[in-house]
Design brief:
By secondary structure, the chain is α+β, with helices and mostly antiparallel strands. The protein has 3 domains: 102 residues, no CATH class; 197 residues, Electron Transport, Fmn-binding Protein, Chain A (Pnp Oxidase, Chain A), CATH 2.30.110; 137 residues, UbiD C-terminal domain-like (3-Layer(aba) Sandwich). Strands 5, 6, 7, 8, 9, 10, 11, 14 and 15 form a 9-stranded antiparallel beta sheet that branches. Strands 17-18-19-21-20 form a 5-stranded mixed beta sheet. Helix 4 packs parallel to helix 8 and helix 6 crosses helix 7. The two termini are 20 Å apart.
């Protein structure tokens, strides 16, 4: 179970935050969380190595690729920056956390008093060490990876930040979208319908104006976590990440359009999306585990400035059949975000929430509750399926009793098989927010919607007192027998 006694949580102490990706990398390496690899090629080998390591075991190390074949000397690529308990604990500032469940609890504790912290604008920073302008721009000088064998091109933006300013409200949106290099100074971008960035671009183009944009391709992993989750519309991810950091991020204003970029970023591209300027983009192997969106015409960004540090590091994600090199950290953060949202909506008795990696984080969510009234389980499930952090691309929400571990699929399936009557305990929600990345959705669909299954796998509320008891020993008996026969059990 996730729920536990709230005392003695020294791991919730907020440590001094790292200053940038490089200090984070040094801390992770000191903790034994990084493996350096030399001599790999940007041509498929980076992606394949990330897949091999990620699928080899849970909580695999981060990879730092150096001396990349065909790349400028000193230019590097990093994979899986936050995809373990230790690395995510370093990112969020919970250095004492040792288990995934502690991180979820830590996130919830912080959100009880959480306040966004706006960034501060500074005059200089390492990102200005090198600036390529206009005709000097050449994106091919970077080790842009061809991630999968059937990708339509090389993607510089996978674990990235796409930064835009809303033309109406003036707030700054920071989100993660895939970015493919077309040539030395043009990139293509793919944004799912309904996403904040796509809505902002539409506002500019409705006025006949190009949309200014920054693309950050190497950054503090805390900024990536904020950009990759459902921060409310109108709230800048810079502010949200600053709140989790405990102090503001330092930002610089870009030369051409005055957009704010992290002062300690590794690589930032600056350009504009012009109306009616599109080129073929994709396909790309996505986080659902499929090449779900075929090649299609997508907006083009003309890059006019490239800012980068000496010996820069591209941060790379490798979407694939799960688990991926970002899915573990996404599962932890999204579980905490959903838990926080439904408790703020007034649902009590939540004992645990888990977004499963095998459900590509978004499509299979389990909620454990202590039932307090008839309809409690259904209320919790419907909120999970429709809250901001759970609505996009959801498919299955399963509610279980507090004695079932929501992180354990074996436990969850046992509850589904023994406490759920399919006809009476499974309901459906139709026409919910989906994405073309779902392989079940037709490519030529006019709108992207799906259905949700709401599964009540709790004991019937009116039978709580007389429902058959679970056949297992009590914890006290197990502990007594374990201690008595410890020499025989060894490390069992």
């Amino acid at each position: 179970m996730i729920a536990e006694n709230p005392v003695n949580r020294q791991w919730l102490t907020h440590a001094r935050p790292h200053e940038d990706l490089r200090e984070f990398l040094a801390r992770a390496e000191e903790a034994g969380e990084v493996r350096r690899i030399t001599g790999a090629s940007w041509d498929l080998e980076l992606g394949a190595l990330a897949e091999i390591v990620t699928h080899s075991r849970t909580e695999a190390p981060a990879l730092l690729f150096e001396d990349i074949v065909g790349a400028t000397k000193g230019f590097r690529v990093m994979s899986a920056s936050t995809n373990s308990t230790k690395r995510l604990a370093l990112t969020l500032g919970f250095p004492g956390a040792r288990r995934p469940t502690e991180l979820v609890l830590g996130y919830r504790e912080r959100m009880k008093t959480f306040e966004p912290i706006p960034p501060r604008i500074v005059a200089s920073g390492p990102i200005l060490e090198n600036i390529d302008r206009d005709d000097a721009v050449d994106l091919w000088k970077f080790p842009v990876p061809l991630v999968h064998e059937h990708d339509g091109g090389r993607y510089i933006g996978t674990e990235d930040l796409v930064i835009m300013r809303d033309p109406e409200g003036g707030w700054v949106n920071v989100a993660t979208y895939r970015v493919m290099v077309h040539d030395k100074n043009h990139v293509g971008i793919w944004m799912s319908p309904g996403k904040h960035g796509r809505r902002i671009v539409a506002k500019y183009h409705a006025e006949g104006r190009p949309c200014p944009v920054l693309i950050c391709c190497g950054q503090d992993p805390l900024l990536f976590l904020a950009a990759n989750h459902e921060v409310p519309y109108g709230v800048s991810e810079y502010d949200y990440a600053g709140g989790h950091r405990g102090r503001p991020f330092d930002l610089l204003l870009s030369e051409l359009h005055g957009l704010p970029m992290p002062a300690t970023a590794e690589i930032v591209l600056e350009g504009q999306l012009y109306p009616d300027d599109a080129q073929p983009e994709g396909p790309f192997g996505e986080f659902t585990g499929y090449y779900a969106s075929p090649q299609s015409n997508q907006p083009v960004i003309r890059i006019e400035r490239v800012y980068h540090r000496d010996e820069p590091i591209i941060t790379m994600a490798t979407p694939m059949r799960p688990p991926t090199d970002v899915s573990f950290s996404k599962a932890l953060v999204k579980s905490g975000m959903i838990w926080d949202e439904i408790e703020r909506a007034g649902v009590a008795g939540i004992k645990g929430i888990w977004c499963h990696e095998s459900g590509v984080v978004r499509m299979f969510v389990v909620v454990a509750i202590k039932q307090a009234y008839a309809g409690h389980a259904k209320q919790a499930a419907l909120l999970v399926a429709n809250c901001q952090s759970g609505a996009y691309m959801g498919k299955f929400v399963v509610v279980v009793d507090e004695d079932v571990d929501p992180t354990d699929l074996f436990d969850v399936l046992w509850a589904m098989c023994t406490r759920c009557d399919p006809v009476n305990d499974i309901d459906f929600v139709r026409n919910a927010w989906a994405s073309p990345l779902d392989p079940m959705i037709e490519h030529d669909a006019k709108s992207y919607v799906n259905s949700r299954a709401i599964v009540d796998a709790c004991r019937p509320f009116d039978r709580l007192k007389d429902f058959p008891k679970v056949a297992r020993a009590t914890p006290d008996l197990l502990e007594r027998v374990r201690n008595k026969f410890a020499p025989y059990l060894g490390d069992i």
